[in-house]
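Quick start: what a row looks like.
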Amino acid sequence: MVKAKCSFWFGFLGLVLVTGSTSSPSIGTAKTRLDKAKIVEVISKEFNEAYVFPETAKKMEAALKKNLAEGRYQSIDDPQVLANTLKEDLIAVSKDKHINLFFMEKAPQNPEQSPEAQAKEVAAMEADNFGFKKLEILAGNIGYIDLRGFLPAEYGGATAVAAMNYMANTRALIFDLRNNGGGSPSMIQLLTSYLLAQPTHLNSFYVRKTDSHEQFWTSAHVEGKRYLDKEVYVLTSGGTFSAAEEFSYNLKNLKRATLVGETTGGGAHPVNFHYLKDIKFGAMIPFGRAINPITKTNWEGTGVEPHVKVSKEEALMRAHTMALQNLLQKSKDADDKKRISWALESLKAQHSPLTLKPETLQSYVGRYGDRVIAWENDQLTYTRGSRKNRLIPLDTDRFAVEGVDYFRLQFHRDGKGQLVSVSGLYQDGKTDKSERSK
């Protein structure tokens, strides 16, 4: 048996460490004669030795042997199909979503023994920007980080530091973990260190084999400014898993973030990869359990429940809206309130535009000085100079201009209700007016 040293790695990243990519390992698809009794015996032995809960490992062994005796595996000739079936049976007993089995024709190289393999692994991480998919400043100076994985800080630390410093001057911060399948505690430590003023105990892992605990704390030092006294939001989905769940769970229990979205997947156990060379199977086996210092438990099997439950598709808009509303409520400055209200109105226009009848929209068509309002492809458009933009109604006579957050159009009517002019409204309070010429 070959075991890759990937202590305290979560989810798919345990497989990354072994194979050097996030894709499935190379498997054989040709049908072959399988010694199913031996396969069940080897898998059972490995889980009995390594799985975090010994009593559950015994129950899994009993289930596999019962299924074997009853012929559940008899007609399976494809080794990967057998691996999938055995995995399903193990999870059915344990409810542990970190368990995985797959057929592997060859043992993987241990990255610690192969500089070439480790360099390939780092290159794969770099190709994914160490999980940082997107950084954006949303309307109202709200920071947004789309993080797809918690890569080890020893590799992705510089990228994380750059991301947090880029966000330093935003007024609230949204971490999007809706597509994050897990990763390394070291990245959790690094990112959370920016959000807390003092070194803080985040989590502990109990390791069955050594009957020991390992603690994880935030750092006393960060590069750049900490992100303190500002609202933080975390977007979650049913696909948010493992280390991404820990980040969410930690911040929720520390009362440092508001979680918005769906209940997460429910995987709290760190895993190690094992290669079972006698049967050519790879196994991801949870070897410990997380213990939160506040709750004294974890999210295994239950997931992390958000503060605000909405669909994953709605989560970003809801968090963005909440961030702006919170700023508006706290602001004491009249000009600042105007800016925040402007951003809220833009957000509403983008996601929930007012619906006007086509004949109403077409009534705005015309030339207003050097401004042209046209009806094209069932849309109202605005052209000034060479740029053309779609108009989005905010109310009957006021429109947002798609793609131009700082600008609006206000139409004016005479005493008879006829459209006679339009004004450009700017976020800084300036206006300019154009009379209708036709």
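That is the whole record. The first strand starts at residue 2 and ends at 9. The chain is about 30% helix and 30% strand.
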